[in-house]
Amino acid sequence: MRVTVWNENRHERREGTRPAELYPEGIHGAIAAGLRTHLGTDVEVTTATMEQPEHGLPAEVVEATDVMLWWGHEDHPGVDDAVVDRVHQAVLGGMGLLVLHSGHYSKIFRRLMGTTCSLRWRNDGEREVVWTVAPRHPIADGIPDPLVIDEQEMYGEFFDIPVPEELIFLSTFSGGEVFRSGATWTRGAGRVFYFSPGDQEYPVYHHPDIQRVLANGVRWAAPAGRGLPLDATHRPLGWFSG
Amino acid sequence: MRVTVWNENRHERREGTRPAELYPEGIHGAIAAGLRTHLGTDVEVTTATMEQPEHGLPAEVVEATDVMLWWGHEDHPGVDDAVVDRVHQAVLGGMGLLVLHSGHYSKIFRRLMGTTCSLRWRNDGEREVVWTVAPRHPIADGIPDPLVIDEQEMYGEFFDIPVPEELIFLSTFSGGEVFRSGATWTRGAGRVFYFSPGDQEYPVYHHPDIQRVLANGVRWAAPAGRGLPLDATHRPLGWFSG
Amino acid sequence: MRVTVWNENRHERREGTRPAELYPEGIHGAIAAGLRTHLGTDVEVTTATMEQPEHGLPAEVVEATDVMLWWGHEDHPGVDDAVVDRVHQAVLGGMGLLVLHSGHYSKIFRRLMGTTCSLRWRNDGEREVVWTVAPRHPIADGIPDPLVIDEQEMYGEFFDIPVPEELIFLSTFSGGEVFRSGATWTRGAGRVFYFSPGDQEYPVYHHPDIQRVLANGVRWAAPAGRGLPLDATHRPLGWFSG
Amino acid sequence: MRVTVWNENRHERREGTRPAELYPEGIHGAIAAGLRTHLGTDVEVTTATMEQPEHGLPAEVVEATDVMLWWGHEDHPGVDDAVVDRVHQAVLGGMGLLVLHSGHYSKIFRRLMGTTCSLRWRNDGEREVVWTVAPRHPIADGIPDPLVIDEQEMYGEFFDIPVPEELIFLSTFSGGEVFRSGATWTRGAGRVFYFSPGDQEYPVYHHPDIQRVLANGVRWAAPAGRGLPLDATHRPLGWFSG
């Protein structure tokens, strides 16, 4: 299985800032390291970043990717529509996609959801408590309930998303807010998992349980091997003679 | 309540064709007449067609619409993106939308769904039998189970849509196919109902039970009056002091 | 429309206790009064309590009820199975049911759900904040978001229920817990709404917004009038000749 | 993984009948043979039948079972309630359950669903065409779309079940009916899959694609290994100190 971790990669390249201190290898580097720790050697994890040609996502990279992770924040509009088209088609064709934290406002997530994907937020270093409401789901496997994150940005409802197919995690914050922090959808032949914990100002992606959630998410979102009826999915088949 | 029936209005303007014979007042005219028959005098039904300026959907019309119905077929790409944006925003803000038959491939429906919305099809005048699988749903109220349409175009699975929030009708066809022919989703504050029966080659929109489904759909999709937290839906509200 | 508010009616009959002080007319009395305030004169609200013959729910009462509300706590096992059977059949036949607070452990709710319906709890007079995650749902109409209850018993996840068809409210508590506090299901031709705020130790049912939620729930759960295909729902129909 | 195939085992023990001819090793024998063919050697498949002591399901068998399959037809009422309780508790605790064909009326399925589970039916040797509406679901992996069964009993809507969490297969029949023939639910920590094809009068369980569906279903329903928070699922945990 081949995993591509995509990152906007801006905050952490500004010297002397908190993100640069927390993520010297980039947020993508931390996420990739966590995946390598928690997934077996059958999984090859690579990274791609926005400043690379075609944002590091030329056709051959996207086509070779089984599961993509997407982290972006301050320049969603700067992502080339042609790349968004390419990733969108890949998801519909079966590629898994994990959208992380501020990626809720990314072009690719909004396009897959069809809504504004807006939410309440406040960055005040509050405690986030992540509760499992689907204990049987493979993404929750091995995750403590609750999972406590000492400091995080608050994301709160109303989160303007389509009703999730599966609601896995709910988060509460010190201020009393609540958020649907782990949720899934199917789009075409592809599986999408949104997971909100993870901000550039906090060491969330170094947290072993958060890494485990992402690793579980990758396993869950990976395309089913043989037998996926892609043709049936994506073009009219015409007459069925029965 | 104000209802706007939108129609591409091309097939039925070609003299001497079957659509022109079946729908002398246009498909929009037939749909509007059916709605007027089945809805009370509290509902004002108007129509808009593609050849009009801004496709008959300038901002003031869209803003004044509580529920829109959308029928299109042969020129989906010709619909102006600015009008699609306007309708999209209206749905997210609470306007109801009924997408009909070949409207499955319209820009607005694909944008709301995030998928290809492709399907199997065959136009061979087959019997369509519409079964109710959500008998308690208000859209099914008063609809015979099954509802038999003597001649229709076949629409078959796999229909590449997000999993419906509510699956109301399933159709079978003489060839043995099946289709999720009546389904709903919420997008932002707006309700969306897709209903597949209705082709320009058949008198489906003159069928009283089909008219009743559409009238029920309009009632169901109408915005909730006061109290809809549109602000919460569409922009971050910031601090909650609790 | 005829509404029957059922109550175990034990806590509040113990003189000198907090429940007796808060609910001198019984919890059923407070709920009924709230419904009468918020619903129109087309709705007739009556009450029934556990100590009455057949728990106040003989066949003629159940058959004449459109929507029932159920509050119980300390003697769920004492409810006669024959009465539970009767209410269960009524729900499947189209009667609406609102299950309140500690009613999560009632025989009728567990039978409709098929699960243990267990949850975490702690009675410590904490603040409950009720957030709306389905702003378009009629049960949320006119309800402030968030709705703050100054003192309540804590109910927390994991709540062992089937995945709700519609998730309307999420609650957080001072201790950091979260709860799916407003959720719906369909069973047969009947609609079920569970709403957790409301404990005998706190004046929750005197709160106007809580009363409004219950009134909205009654409207939502009321049987669809004519046209409900009860026969199709409840017995095999045999041959369809097409 | 340990799989137990349970069967009422009556039809096929009547000499000279069609079921006896089709299923000389019993329906359970045919199902078990199919599972052994399609699952790896890590899966141990055993059988249990109704005429055995405790219906072949004493506590030690149920506790040792990861996934159970259930086929019954003519004597659902004869199944001991104590055994149904045991299987019910096992499902809530994480055991997978596949309910087959006429098992829709079994005590265990009705108890897990909370509805009548009634349906339309007609036994006339009609063609059943099974369509996939969730091509990405692991239970559909490798299954032809459509899957054609030359002769089967007709099962038709309205099927009085709770709305499925996942709808995987839809079947059509020569008479024009439709049926939600493959659907899933979660109950507690357990996964439930209902699959309708399979009648004692037809050789359905010898069909390789049907066997593949059941094998896929077993893999999907198997309990998640370590980490399943059974305690959280099944009893209140009390105070969370955060």
TrEMBL record, chains A, B, C, D:
Residues 2-221 form the ThuA-like domain. Coiled coil: none annotated. Pfam families: ThuA. Transmembrane segments: none annotated. This is ThuA domain-containing protein. The lineage of its organism: Bacteria, Bacillati, Actinomycetota, Actinomycetes, Micrococcales.
